C-alpha cells in the first residue's frame, strides 16, 4: 500500500507547495543518496534539479521546520541545512529581513534570497515593527 501524507501526520495543505516542485516525477531515491564512492555525484545530480525548482525556499523552510535529517531538501544536504539554520538563527534572520526591507525588497524577493517562506518574512516584519514601537 502506498503511504499517504496523513501517515506522516501531514495534511495536503502542509505540502501544497510540492505540487510545483521540480522533483515531481523524478526518482525520490535520487534525493536520498547512499553513502559510498558515488555519493558526491549523486548529491550534485539532485542539487541540479533543486537549482531549477520554483519552490526551493518552501522546501528548505519545510525541511528546517520539520527537522528533516536525511536527504536533499531545498538544494541542501543535512549538514548544509544545519549550517544554514545556525547562520540564519531567528535574530540574525530578522535583522537581515529588516535590512532587505529597508533596501526596498518585496517579501517574495526576501523570501527567495533567504530561502524562507514569504510568511516568515511577513512575521519577522511584524516583530520588527513591534520592537520599533516598544
Ligand atoms: S528544492 Fe529540490 S527537493 Fe525540494 S521540492 Fe524542489 S526539487 Fe524537490
TrEMBL record:
Keyword Transcription regulation belongs to the record: yes
Name of a matching Pfam family: Whib
Cofactor entry: [4Fe-4S] cluster
Assigned keywords, A-Z: 4Fe-4S, Cytoplasm, Disulfide bond, DNA-binding, Iron, Iron-sulfur, Metal-binding, Transcription, Transcription regulation
Major localization listed first in the record, in broad terms: cytoplasm
4Fe-4S Wbl-type domain boundaries: 22-83
Residues at which [4Fe-4S] cluster binds: 23, 50, 53, 59
Residue stretches of biased makeup (Basic residues): 81-90
Region (Disordered): 74-100
Family membership: Belongs to the WhiB family.
HAMAP family: WhiB (MF_01479)
PANTHER family, alphabetized: TRANSCRIPTIONAL REGULATOR WHIB (PTHR38839:SF4), TRANSCRIPTIONAL REGULATOR WHID-RELATED (PTHR38839)
UniProt function note: Acts as a transcriptional regulator. Probably redox-responsive. The apo- but not holo-form probably binds DNA.
Protein name as annotated: Transcriptional regulator WhiB
Organism, scientific name: Amycolatopsis pithecellobii
Source species taxonomy: Bacteria, Bacillati, Actinomycetota, Actinomycetes, Pseudonocardiales
Amino acid at each position: 500500500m502506498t503511504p499517504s501524507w496523513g501517515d506522516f501526520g501531514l495534511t495536503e495543505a502542509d505540502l501544497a507547495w510540492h505540487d510545483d516542485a521540480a522533483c515531481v516525477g523524478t526518482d525520490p531515491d535520487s534525493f536520498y543518496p547512499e553513502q559510498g564512492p558515488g555519493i558526491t555525484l549523486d548529491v550534485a545530480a539532485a542539487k541540479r534539479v533543486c537549482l531549477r525548482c520554483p519552490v526551493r525556499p518552501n522546501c528548505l523552510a519545510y525541511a528546517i521546520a520539520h527537522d528533516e535529517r536525511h536527504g536533499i531538501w531545498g538544494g541542501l544536504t543535512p549538514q548544509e541545512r544545519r549550517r544554514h539554520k545556525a547562520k540564519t538563527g531567528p535574530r540574525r534572520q530578522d535583522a537581515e529581513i529588516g535590512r532587505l526591507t529597508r533596501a526596498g525588497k518585496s517579501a517574495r524577493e526576501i523570501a527567495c534570497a533567504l530561502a524562507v517562506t514569504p510568511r516568515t518574512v511577513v512575521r519577522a516584519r511584524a516583530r520588527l515593527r513591534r520592537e520599533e514601537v516598544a
